[in-house]
Amino acid sequence: MSDQVHPTQLSTVMLQPASRSARTIFVSALLAVAIIIFPFFATPFHLDVANQILLASIGALSLMLLTGFAGQISLGHAGLIAAGAFTAGILSKEAGAPFWIGIPAAGATGGLLGLIFGLPSLRLRGVYLAVSTLALHFIVVYAGGEYENLVGGSGGILIPPPSLWGLKINTGKAWYVLLVAGAILAFLVTWNVVRSRTGRAFAAVHGRETVAAALGINVARTKLTAFVISSSMTAIAGALFAYYRGFVSIEAFSLYLSIQYIAMIIIGGIGTLPGAFLGALFVTLLPYLIETVVAHLPGAQAMAGSIFAVNYAAFGLVMIVFLVFEPSGLVGLWRRLERRLLIGRQSP
Q1: Which domain holds residue 97?
Q2: Residue 19 domain flag
Q3: Full-model pTM
Q4: b/e code 121-140 from CB counts within 10 Å (16+ = b)
Q5: Is residue 156 domain-resident?
Q6: How far is CA 42 from the centre of its chain?
């Protein structure tokens, strides 16, 4: 009969989940080995780039939770990163607060800001919500600039290297270990939230708020929870950035930074946790790749002054390409390639 399954086809279908699981375990193990051995062979420059990617991945995970899973659009990501960085910097400068106080204090500051600026999400949606969150960016930037002027010009805030359990974190390798641990912790927190009842409420609100309310979900509480968790994680990423750089200045938190994080979750694959890491990797490495390519072009010295403009143009072009031709991002590209390889193996 036409609806019967051949024994060989049945065995292939039954083996697909097992083979996929085996591939996942193999890739995860390979990635873990690469992460462990990387600092032993990396140069200081490569360690710095890797640390930038890890910092960006924490911020991308927090935005992925808010926008990719809960469906709440935000343009205030740079303002939250600035809030976390300035919280850590001010506590260090004014009170001599150690690292283990500055990080949770930054998280608390971000959570409070998320609660306050998440309130417009109860009435606004789409572009109107995005514009309202943009106010967060300008308010934090203004407050940070006023503090810099108060303490003596626009020199920023110097932060001494942090220490944990008596060990100073002042080398690229030490920061690499700490940031790998931080990125793993951020991933586990986000993964558990997404898989929990709260995460299912996020997905329901993202799909259709009216249906979610009909199912008994408290839409207002769900939205505010998404903003608080995401903002707290973002501010912690900002505090880690401040400690890593040892310096905080309001000039580092332009609106362009918010656009970069939005690009990370779009290019990586919105609504997926691996997409946050892939997007952070891609967006962080793109300027270095462009500079390398430009350096090998004829007339590279003449183009040196316009490298920033080239970066901006290339960045915008890449975003358009992904939005038009690959809206599911790098994760979608990988999954499609994986399916084609699987079909190719199964075909006679």
Answers
A1: 41-346
A2: no
A3: 0.89
A4: beebeeeebbebbbebbebb
A5: yes
A6: 23
